[in-house]
Amino acid sequence: MPGDVHAGGSSLGRIADRPPAAVTAGAVAAALGVNLALWLVGLAFGGSFQYVEADGSLHTTTAPQGVITMTVLPLSGGLALSVLLAAAGRRRFVLRSAQVVGVGAALATTVQTFTAGFDVPSTIALSVMHIVVAAVVLLALEALARPQRAERAGPARG
User: Fold this and answer.
1) Rounded CA gap, 48 and 42, in Å?
2) CA–CA distance from 25 to each of 38, 40, 58 (Å)?
């Protein structure tokens, strides 16, 4: 099926044939683009992206720089570490484990957006940004865990 994620000709299958650095860069760029769009939507709905400090004062955020930093650094660092550990051996196990850890971390940190005292539009936009990062981690590591096209074809017969 053309839309089947498990089909060799799917988008994910084509991404799996790219070098790990390209998969990582593409995943980070995609997540960043979506998260910046979500930030703009949050602003359009009246989000201030400011939160309340422990002393009750309002903290002015550095958005969009904060959105950029909090998307790019954890995502690129986590994916790069996963690729490096996978290269050391037990590739599929490492990448599958990284999926669990990466998705879990991205979703767990969503709680911070609810407890930080953001306004409703900011809370919603930031929470969805965490979900975007979780989805990108899952898909990028899935692509990296797939065998390359040459490996899928099996040994050459001569």
Assistant:
1) 8
2) 20, 23, 35
| Contact between 32 and 71 (Cβ < 8 Å) | yes
C-alpha span between 93 and 91 (Å, rounded): 6
DSSP class of residue 116 equals: T
Which residue from 37, 25, 109, 113 is spatially nearest to 75, judged by alpha carbons?
25
What does the block give as tokens for 70? 């909090």
CA 136 from centre of chain: 4
In tens, the pLDDT along 92-132 reads 999 999 999 999 999 999 999 998 889 999 999 999 999 99
Q: How many residues does the chain have?
A: 158
| Beta strands per DSSP E along the chain | 51-52, 58-59
Token duo for residue 98: 């990284």
